[in-house]
């Protein structure tokens, strides 16, 4: 898709994604942003819902992989608890972190998607890397900077209708 902040898929939560939906589109690797996508910025543990969802994905042959811009050890701790591989300090929208995840899994960009809550990092990064871009609604909005940024993103988000499951 190249340089675009318009997502290919728009949903409320990653938990809406099913293995059947992804596999029908040839996606066997789902990269996931951490902050405000899998957990709130203050959340350090995966929810029980995420564990159940991960098991369903893994059983169907979909690999999950955290690709986070965080530079702290938060991604490492979350990924260890959730038992999934991760890349932190990914520098999205640059492709370095995305390419590391592809290399570690042996997947191609055509077999991968990236889901995240931000258009200027997650969606743009996925689109630049040739992945299917999936935008989710942020888990929580507390910080004024994030509220303003999401406000700017609204017109671009609504360019894509939400998927019906």
Describe it.
This protein is α/β, with parallel strands linked by helices. The chain is 38% helix and 15% strand. It contains 6 helices and 6 strands. The chain has helices at residues 19-24, 48-60, 74-82, 96-105, 119-129, 144-157; strands spanning 9-11, 29-32, 63-67, 86-87, 112-116, 132-136. A 6-stranded parallel β-sheet has the order 1-6-5-2-3-4, sandwiched between helices. Strand 2, helix 2 and strand 3 form a beta-alpha-beta unit. The mean pLDDT is 92.
Would you tell me the overall average pLDDT? 92
Straight-line N-to-C gap = 24 Å
Structural class: alpha/beta
**How much beta, percentage-wise?**
5-15%
Placed side by side, the strands forming the largest sheet appear as: 1-6-5-2-3-4
Major beta-sheet overview: 6 strands, parallel
Order of helices and strands: EHEHEHEHEHEH
Uncertain residue ranges = none
Cα-based radius of gyration, to the nearest Å = 14 Å
Summarize this structure as a short list of keywords or feature phrases:
6-stranded parallel sheet, 6 strands, alpha/beta, 165 residues, 6 helices
Q: Could you give the topology of this structure?
A:
Blueprint: E1 9-11, H1 19-24, E2 29-32, H2 48-60, E3 63-67, H3 74-82, E4 86-87, H4 96-105, E5 112-116, H5 119-129, E6 132-136, H6 144-157
Task: Produce a short descriptive summary.
This protein has helices spanning 19-24, 48-60, 74-82, 96-105, 119-129, 144-157; strands at residues 9-11, 29-32, 63-67, 86-87, 112-116, 132-136. The chain is of the alpha/beta class and 165 residues long. Strand 3 (63-67), helix 3 (74-82) and strand 4 (86-87) form a beta-alpha-beta unit.
